Amino acid sequence: MSEATIYELSSPKRTGFQFKDxxxxxxxxxxxxxxxxxxxxxxxEVDVIRHFTRLSQLxxxxxxxxxxxGSCTMKYNPRINEEIARLVGFAMxxxxxxxxxxxxxxxxxxxxxxxxxxxxxFAGITLQPAAGAHGEFVGGLIMRAYHQSRHDTxxxxxxxxxxxxxTNPATSSMSGFEVVNLPSDERGNVDLDKLKEICDxxxxxxxxxxxxxxxxxxxxxxxxxxxxxxxxxLVYGDGANLNALLGIVKPGDLGFDIMHFNLHKTFSTxxxxxxxxxxxxxxxxxxxxxxxxxxxxxxxxGDEELPPLYGFITPxxxxxxxxxxxGHFGVMVRAITYIAMHGCDGLRKIAEHAVLNxxxxxxxxxxxxxxxxxxxxxxxxxAEGFWDDVPDIHALxxxxxxxxxxxxxxxxxxxxxxxxxxxxxxTETESKQSIEHFADALNTIAQEAHNNAELLHSAPHxxxxxxxxxxxxAKELVLCCWIRPED
Length: 487
Ligand SMILES: *Cc1c(COP(=O)(O)O)cnc(C)c1O
Hints:
Blueprint: H1 45-58, H2 79-85, H3 88-91, H4 103-120, E1 124-126, H5 132-149, E2 157-161, H6 167-174, E3 178-182, H7 192-198, E4 203-208, H8 221-230, E5 234-239, H9 251-254, E6 258-261, E7 281-283, E8 295-300, E9 309-313, H10 329-365, E10 381-384, H11 395-404, E11 411-412, E12 421-424, H12 432-451, H13 453-457, H14 470-475
Parallel strand pairs: 2-3, 2-4, 4-5, 5-6
Antiparallel strand pairs: 1-7, 6-7, 8-9, 10-12, 11-12
Helix pairs in contact: 2-10, 4-10, 5-6, 10-12
Bound molecules: pyridoxal-5'-phosphate.
């Protein structure tokens, strides 16, 4: 009974709502807009509450426990962000309202732009992109527009390291470039010799993640950037995850020309499950004129009596609009709340604790798991999820078994350059105890792999649903219960 769908709970004439008698005459709806039958389930209020509460408990979430999904930065989302985002003046405004009536909201967006500039060292910001990948795409379009404005049309390639997030080659290609794979060296850095060899005047730019997806700070960063600049290319920074850098170093100062931020990673707004994100893009001074339109700014200076008037500005060589309206405002409110709550010193502490937590966790599991490219990590690290002496155990088995210990598995099989990768990012919001609990679980699983491999192969055992056939799940998607399989 408890596993029933809401349709199976349906019982004729049972209802969960009460309408007052209408105090206006009923409207006649045209026949052709009406369906004969609407197969809504007939359920009571308590049926609905129990059903959805039960479903909500089938999901794992950061509010339930440790969620060390590398690269994704599943940090705790402070509740104050939600309270502020729900204020009527933020939540109930409409993007088509006259600008005189939304001055406060525009002021907030300008403030966020200013703070992101301060954090990153960039000269201009667009808040429009809806996610990290969208920001990368915008960055690619800005690179194109910049080179075209200089009549430098031979630049057709973007270099992307082999450790890159999958969105990097995808968005480079979508913005019209040929993607050239740049190998890493044995310390997990960009291979400098290879970079020197392939960098020429056909290169529009390099897309670089620093720290990279191995959680390692690029040891020759300044040299990498200057090689690309010497050849006339631009350097795009994938700043989805700024957790290791906040308050410590500004990517703009390091020489990056363009970079996106993921407000839904670094700045704690909820993500996962395909909800709205926000991927603002920052650019260095020579690229400010190419930003998407509109940029939010002051359109009329204030004086002693009147505050400034905020409005929309179209940069002279703008690549155009890339998002309906102005981006995901609710996400921006959460991010600016988060920044305000931490202040400058607090932001720096985030980075310090994120790096400390990752290194502590790495240390706790290093005897049981191989960590290739073993040097001080930043906010995350990548371990190998296999052992030569138990060849039939894979990273996937370890990930599934972790669920039995009540934690979410780390990212696995990415980055591609580590065999059977387990990519682990504890984040700064976890306590010493939760990190140790996770390390204990991983270390116990390493023993189980050697003593009782079947336990791993058949895991998870304690979750509402056991091991899924992932290929079937991907190929035969059933995402809604509106059409049940037997219908
Ligand atoms: C998450 C992530 C992205 C993509 O961000 P989305 O908001 O999911 O589009 C890109 N690069 C890195 C390194 C990431 O971690």
